[in-house]
TrEMBL record:
Protein name: tRNA:m(4)X modification enzyme TRM13
Naturally occurring in which organism (per UniProt): Camelus bactrianus
Function: tRNA methylase which 2'-O-methylates cytidine(4) in tRNA(Pro) and tRNA(Gly)(GCC), and adenosine(4) in tRNA(His).
EC primary class: transferase
Reactions this protein catalyses: cytidine(4) in tRNA(Gly)(GCC) + S-adenosyl-L-methionine = 2'-O-methylcytidine(4) in tRNA(Gly)(GCC) + S-adenosyl-L-homocysteine + H(+); cytidine(4) in tRNA(Pro) + S-adenosyl-L-methionine = 2'-O-methylcytidine(4) in tRNA(Pro) + S-adenosyl-L-homocysteine + H(+); adenosine(4) in tRNA(His) + S-adenosyl-L-methionine = 2'-O-methyladenosine(4) in tRNA(His) + S-adenosyl-L-homocysteine + H(+)
InterPro entries referenced in this protein's UniProt entry, alphabetically: Methyltransferase_TRM13 (IPR007871), Trm13 (IPR039044), TRM13/UPF0224_CHHC_Znf_dom (IPR022776), Znf_CCCH-type_TRM13 (IPR021721)
Family membership: Belongs to the methyltransferase TRM13 family.
GO MF annotations in UniProt: tRNA 2'-O-methyltransferase activity; zinc ion binding
Superkingdom, taxonomy of origin: Eukaryota
The enzyme's E.C. designation: 2.1.1.225
């Protein structure tokens, strides 16, 4: 697993100044920056002979990363996954929906546990309940000139092309709805790296008074919103689950009183429904 024989993997040598540990799952070397004179990053230091004397263990706050056992106490005080003071816009379960008082959690079962007969009965009930509803959705696949050059970059792989087409279509639909303009705040839900807000900002060029709030519940690496330094655009990132997010208490929104446009690309069906409720509530009590 170590990088002692990099040519065996057919990937060349690790980038200078980066970790020399070969990540088999990703078929490439680790890209983390290493300390001066070191061959491996802190996460993979156990692979180096000089580090074998120190034991690394899983972080009890987040098992996705490791820490030296003898530095655990120090690490817990600064770990990004530690419990932090809740901001004013955090209201526990504000978007969780009303709980049915008659609902007994012990009676809830996963669909996968239902028998074939029970599943058929459930499907019949759902079809009956949806009779008369206009459930036919028309595809609105569009594009936007802001992504023209990126879409035609020959260096793009299939994955990059897919995401760019999706982002271009979202921008095209936002513009069609006449929501792409100055003096407003775009709230990107499930922002991830912030690529969608990035392209919205590119499309708006030098539009005045444009604010972006990027909502993401987990810590994200390689964020692109930190690269924007335009005087007319303001980017703010909130690490919070949308289940607990109260838009009306976000300082930027309450201060600037700008119209709010909700956007998103990485949301599941349930989260999309929640976002609809959040935006509806915002329109009732705010701009």
């Amino acid at each position: 697993m170590a990088a002692s024989a990099p040519t065996r993997h057919g990937t060349g040598f690790p980038i200078e100044g980066r970790c020399g540990y070969y990540v088999e799952k990703k078929k490439r070397f680790c890209r983390m920056v290493v300390a001066a004179g070191k061959r491996f990053c802190g996460e993979h230091a156990g692979a180096a002979e000089e580090e074998n004397a120190r034991k690394r263990i899983l972080c009890p706050l987040d098992p996705k990363h490791t820490v030296y056992e003898d530095q655990l106490a120090k690490h817990l005080k600064k770990c990004n996954s530690r419990e932090k003071p809740k901001p004013d816009f955090f209201i526990q379960d504000i978007n969780a929906g009303l709980k049915d008082e008659t609902e007994i959690s012990e009676q809830l079962v996963p669909i996968s546990s239902l028998s074939e007969e029970q599943l058929e009965n459930l499907i019949k009930k759902l079809r009956k309940a949806s009779e008369g509803l206009n459930s036919t959705l028309k595809d609105q696949i569009m594009s936007h000139p802001a992504l023209h050059d990126a879409l035609h970059d020959p260096k793009n792989g299939d994955s990059a092309t897919k995401h760019l087409k999706q982002q271009a279509s979202i921008l095209g639909n936002i513009e069609k709805l006449k929501l792409l303009g100055p003096r407003r705040c775009f709230v990107e839900f499930g922002a991830g790296k912030g690529k969608l807000s990035h392209w919205v900002d590119i499309a708006l060029k030098d539009a005045e008074e444009v604010h972006f709030i990027l909502v993401e519940k987990v810590t994200t690496r390689f964020k692109v919103d930190g690269k924007h330094r335009k005087k007319n655009s303001v980017f703010e990132r909130l690490q919070i689950d949308i289940q607990h997010l109260c838009l009306n208490k976000i300082p930027l929104l309450s201060k600037e009183k700008l119209p709010v446009v909700g956007i998103g690309k990485h949301l599941c069906g349930v989260a999309t429904g929640v976002i609809g409720d959040i935006m509806w509530a915002k329109n009732i009590s705010g701009p």
